[in-house]
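Dear colleague,

Following up on yesterday's call, I've attached the two folding results inline so they're easy to grep. Please treat them as preliminary; we haven't cross-checked anything against experimental data yet. The first protein's sequence and structure tokens come first.
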Amino acid sequence: MDVLDEAVRRVLRIKFRLGLFDHPYTEVVPVDYEEHSRLSREMADETVVLLKNNGILPLKKSANVGIYGYLAGDISLSHGCWAGAPSRDRIVKFPDAMNKIAGEEGHVEVHDGHYLDALVAWPGDPDVCVMLIGQVPYMDGENANVTSLELSDDQKLIIEKCKKMGKPMVAVIRSGRPLALESIDHYFDAIIWGWHNGTEGATSLAAAIYGDLNPNGKLSMTIPRVTGQEPLYYNQTSSCRHNEGYYGNDRIRNYRDCNDSPMYPFGFGLSYTTFEYSDLHAERSEISYDEIMNGGAFEIKVKVKNTGDREGKEVAQCYIHDCVAKLTRPIRELKGFIKENYLPGEERELTFRLTKNELGYWDNHMTYLVEPGKFKVWVGGNCYAENEIEITITK
């Protein structure tokens, strides 16, 4: 016990010397909830991913909108897993956000019953159906594995029932993991991926639906067609079968009963405007190994133009492939991205720098290698970027 007491004394002496006991009580500082909400909205605005749009979005605020799905009013979809005990009165519900953004000219009716209610009747006669679907956080958080990435059967039943009304359909998917979408994608005229995107996340989703926000998020994961495609990732390595899997749809090479490619690839995300990439080139296409190892870099330049009629943000993404290496390298690897806002018709030249940090890799012995040889470089709006050049590290 004497040893323990002395150990405690040593710790306390240091704390006294540092002044940690000069102010023994923590000062109570009011929480700036308004600023927190503003930052939450700012963050959520950057995360909305538009996966599909057949011209239905953005909606007119005067449209008669029906919101369907038993998850419509579930606030847990915003705060996600491991959020503790959130302040329920500060989390914006999706129907409330839709009403707020639509304003006085809008009409939003909520039908958030379970599938048994759906079998009885569908009240209302909307101009468009907005389906709130996905997974609640406890289903996709830590230690929450699943054997299927399909939507639950009851949600599929609601989708099918809603489709029979013959009205345009918009899906708002809120999930923290990829979901297999091939079985439901064809039901919808537009699909927005909404994640579990924070206290003000529902407001950002509603703003995107009505066009107050131009969606500008990109997928940070791959959306599969069916569960059996997993594991499915954009940076798979090369194999004896050319472009097998992710980057190919030849059923002779891989799956016999499904296209090999994903439903929506890594880095994908649409906008209410369009962007064009051109003039991809390297300032120098060849740099010596010694120069690269001593701080040299390839400067990759590309022009990005807003070819639409409204302002919007685009995330330009730079991918590489190491063509000659001691170990098999990924078909494509993301090595940089630049997010910029563009006015209609505006064009900018962007520059990506590829240094030894981007061009090397760790081998099986945990040695960092940068090897002479050719590299392919792509820049575009997702991992399927088509603009391609070659650069070479010479010996």
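Below is the second protein, in the same order (sequence, then structure):
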Amino acid sequence: MKTKQALSMKKNTQNLYNDILSLLDKDGVTKKEIVEQLQEKHKVAPSEIRNSMRQVRADFLKKLNVLQSGVVRI
């Protein structure tokens, strides 16, 4: 039972992460609008949304640092 719950939570977190990325692709969307849309769609607490947004930001910065270091060439 716990395994199914863990997988379900991981899948929900991944869906939230993907939705944040898709909303960030839109022009002129504010952070407040993103949080409101995600709350309506996923029915999660604002703290969980903020944590996911921090994760998106951290992943972006990691990728940016790798690109700037010259390890990965485009």
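For the second protein, one point worth flagging: Residues 51 and 57 are 10 Å apart (CA to CA).

Best wishes,
A.L.
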